[in-house]
């Protein structure tokens, strides 16, 4: 077997110097817009606000922007805090075939590096595409067994950060290879962090962004890594999955398939493993016009993580609620959507939502489990008090590559999430610049940590 690390490093370097097709550039801009949509509402929330305050005394001079407090910062400081903030409200993108959120750990350090270098939008887009390509393919090589214990965004995200930063810093293929190799030994992130109540989950992409950036900075300076760190007998794949990696499968279409063109952009502000069920419930309610009070029972059939991660009949906190099929189904039916407002304290305590939660059960469906991770489907049965029994098989999720958000829908999502924080004029201006601008976004009108107070 050829060395997958060297193959991926050469492929990443090609995105720095080769053609950037218009379609790929457009998808990279979509990813950047979606990242900012997730970032800005997270900038006024813990843990990013707490960490920014705790690290303030360590901040040195820099040209990168920490959007959490609006200050110019060193590259790694900005990467850490921006990546953390962008994962907080659970609206960040997904690469379905790897079960992975690439935007948070990949875009944050790439943007910080390009800002530090005084680079262009094209350089940023190239760095993003390269980081997505490498990390998504590493994710495919270790899944689905990797996800038994590991949080892919924290682990695989370290490679996205290393590659995007290395490309943004002008590294060649050899240096990118060493950045990947060092990132392999930095990668971490345990699922237990979000199976229990904690603030650790958003810190996973934050750490990945910081660690990956460090790996890239070191590689550019001549720091070397073990070039068999991905596929070696004690390498990343062997340590975190059931074998030494499905590299032939992950690299088979390298050069013909571009991962960033197949992103899922979230249409609900919660764990993506609940999305198909939410889409089914929403469509059944639209078709049959029932009220929440008419429901006697809801049964959700799902794939592995829908049951193991998201079967939470009792929740106390915002974090727990974002991973609860029971809560999010209740919020959808009562509030009409699962957006940021669904997790505000008043709604977390809403008796109408709680009443529905007790009627929702989740079970593992073998057919859906066998189709995962390539397909994220759900089966939903709803029994109504008048005796009607409703059923829907939901084969995909709104926002997946086969049911994508249009550019207009992506714009609507961006404005909905960003305008309440920085104001509609600033949100519109930022969105226009992300779509058409050739310069890199700088500071926003006001420090975001104070904007939402």
What does this 3D model show about the protein?
The protein is α+β, with helices and mostly antiparallel strands. It folds into 2 domains: 4-262, 2-methylcitrate dehydratase PrpD (Orthogonal Bundle), CATH 1.10.4100; 272-394, 60s Ribosomal Protein L30, Chain: A, CATH 3.30.1330. It has 23 helices and 6 strands. The strands form 2 sheets. A 4-stranded mixed β-sheet has the order 4-3-5-6. Strands 1-2 form a two-stranded antiparallel sheet. Helix 2 crosses helix 4 (75-86) and helix 5 packs parallel to helix 8 (157-168).
Structural class by SSE content = alpha+beta
Shape: globular
Task: Tell me the CATH topology of the largest domain.
Answer: 2-methylcitrate dehydratase PrpD
Strand content: 5-15%
> Major sheet, described briefly?
4 strands, mixed
Query: Largest beta sheet: what is the strand line-up?
Result: 4-3-5-6
Which value, in Å, is the CA radius of gyration? 21 Å
Question: What is the CATH homology-level superfamily of the largest domain?
Answer: 2-methylcitrate dehydratase PrpD
Quick one: CATH class of the largest domain? Answer: Mainly Alpha
List keywords for this structure.
disordered C terminus, alpha+beta, 2-methylcitrate dehydratase PrpD, 60s Ribosomal Protein L30, Chain: A, 23 helices, two-stranded antiparallel ribbon, 2 domains
Task: Give a short overview.
By secondary structure, the protein is α+β, with helices and mostly antiparallel strands.
Secondary-structure map:
Elements: H1 4-17, H2 22-42, H3 48-55, E1 64-66, E2 71-73, H4 75-86, H5 103-117, H6 121-142, H7 152-155, H8 157-168, H9 173-186, H10 192-195, H11 200-220, H12 236-240, H13 247-251, H14 275-288, E3 295-302, H15 304-308, H16 318-322, H17 325-335, H18 345-348, H19 351-357, E4 360-364, H20 366-371, E5 378-384, E6 389-394, H21 407-422, H22 424-436, H23 448-451
Parallel strand pairs: 3-4
Antiparallel strand pairs: 1-2, 3-5, 5-6
């Amino acid at each position: 077997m050829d060395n997958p690390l060297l193959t991926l490093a050469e492929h990443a370097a090609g995105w720095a110097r080769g053609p950037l097709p218009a379609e790929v550039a457009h998808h990279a801009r979509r990813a950047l817009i979606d990242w900012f949509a997730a970032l800005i509402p997270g900038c006024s929330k813990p843990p990013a606000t707490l960490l920014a305050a705790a690290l303030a005394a360590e901040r040195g001079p820099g040209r990168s922007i920490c959007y959490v407090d609006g200050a110019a910062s060193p590259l790694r400081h900005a990467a850490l805090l921006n990546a953390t903030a962008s994962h907080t409200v659970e609206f960040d993108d997904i690469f379905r075939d790897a079960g992975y959120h690439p935007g948070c750990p990949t875009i944050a350090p790439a943007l910080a590096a390009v800002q530090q270098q005084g680079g262009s939008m094209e350089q940023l887009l190239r760095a993003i595409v390269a980081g997505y390509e490498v990390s998504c393919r590493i994710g495919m090589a270790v899944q689905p067994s990797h996800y038994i214990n590991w949080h892919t965004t924290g682990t695989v995200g370290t490679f996205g950060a290393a590659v995007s930063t290395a490309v943004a810093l002008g590294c060649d293929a050899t240096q990118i290879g060493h950045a990947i190799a060092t990132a392999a030994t930095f990668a971490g992130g345990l699922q237990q962090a979000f199976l229990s109540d904690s603030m650790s989950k958003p810190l996973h992409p934050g750490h990945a962004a910081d660690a990956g950036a460090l790996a890239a900075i070191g590689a550019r300076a001549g720091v070397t890594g073990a070039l068999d760190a991905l596929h070696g007998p004690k390498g990343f794949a062997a340590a975190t999955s059931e074998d030494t990696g499905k590299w032939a499968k992950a690299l088979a279409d390298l050069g013909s398939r571009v991962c960033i063109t197949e992103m899922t952009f979230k249409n609900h502000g919660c764990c993506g493993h609940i999305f198909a069920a939410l889409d089914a419930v929403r469509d059944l309610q639209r078709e049959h016009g029932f009220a929440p009070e008419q429901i006697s029972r809801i049964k959700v059939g799902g794939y592995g993580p829908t049951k193991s991660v998201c079967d939470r009949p009792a929740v106390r906190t915002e974090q727990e609620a974002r991973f609860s099929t029971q809560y999010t189904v209740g919020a959808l039916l009562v509030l009409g959507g699962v957006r940021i407002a669904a997790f505000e304290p008043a709604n977390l305590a809403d008796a109408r939502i709680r009443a529905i939660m007790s009627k929702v059960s989740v079970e593992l469906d073998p057919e859906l489990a066998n189709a995962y991770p390539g397909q994220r489907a759900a089966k939903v049965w709803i029994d109504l008090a008048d005796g009607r029994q409703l059923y829907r098989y939901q084969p995909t999720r709104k926002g997946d590559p086969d049911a994508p958000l249009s550019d207009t829908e992506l714009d609507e999502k961006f404005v909905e999430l960003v305008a309440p924080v920085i104001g509609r004029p600033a949100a519109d201006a930022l969105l226009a610049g992300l779509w058409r601008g050739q310069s890199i976004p700088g500071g926003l009108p006001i420090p975001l940590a104070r904007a939402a107070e």
